[in-house]
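Protein modeling request. Please complete all fields; requests missing the sequence field cannot be processed.
Requester role: graduate student
Desired output: 3D structure, token encoding
Chains: 1
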Amino acid sequence: MHLTLLALIPFISTPLAPRFQDARPQPSAPAPDHLHHAPGTATAKAAIAHVERRGHGPVPVVLLAGAPFGWRAWENFMTRNAERYTMIAITPAGYDGTPPLAMPAPEHEDYGERAWTEALLTEIDALVRKEFIGEKKLGAAVVVGHHLMSDYYAVRLAAEHPELVRAVVSVAGLGSAPVGRGSTTRADRLAFVREKRAPFFRAVSQETWNANTFSASALSNDATRGKSLFEAEIAVPLATQIRYYLEYMTDDLESAIAKVGCPILSLQLRVGGSLDSLSDEVKKMLVQRFGSLEEAAKQVQFGGPWDSLAALAKPGVLQVQQLGGGAAFAMDDEPEAFDRQLAEFIDGLPKPAATAGKTKKP
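Delivered output (362 residues):
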């Protein structure tokens, strides 16, 4: 049995993942507080800031953009596929220039409560019921989660509300957030966030953030598109991004994916590498684990986060395919190939049961 490098060393992220764990805040300026909104920040009451509705096809699709992007991440896809799907794409509060939610009250501020995350998932649940189960009666939806955090949202929705989800698609999904060495139980995750990540992010400078978040080239293979996405990414206030991210770090996909019974497709970014490309620290860990780098080379394979998740899913539920490009916005970089992969998966799904919500005639 071979081990993927990501499974073996959980604190190493994919090549595109933020490397904040290796960064250090700049000590020169007075320390800010990015765990709370800046004074005077206007806040929203709803966790979903905007719902974009496009298309009139027979298949209902929910599109969740990777953090910190809104519905416009899916605009080109929605335009291309208006005949095939009936689609809704959402913008979480605080993204794409919208007001964020208010920070939780002190008694509910702990990241383990995931106040913003649970509010968002509750509203997505209600939205799917309203749009597809009740009003339009198209039935359970294909939920597409993109890149950072949204693959987690999609899996949670399928695990907790199976009647709403016909299938899950992860696009360039990053899986669970890395939380350092050792055990990754939920208790360990929460402790890591409280003791390590929250203090760091409280005072992180904008410059450090910009240098360690997803670069333009990591977001898109097209330089102009990548630059635009990067500018949109860093325009979202740090307090908003950090709140979502720290809540996400306290949970994991592993426990949820084992509960999902519907088909799952992971369209995963191309993963490459070799032991020679690893840092000296990682090579030392591999030697300690396997005795030598030669033995490690026999036992360790490079793989993405969803390769490891595949071993935890129910038999026959999850399939992993490679995206042609190496950037997160593959749906724009290689539209024809992306649309074909998604359409082939959806066309191959079991036919949906009788549409939920319809009233039987007497």
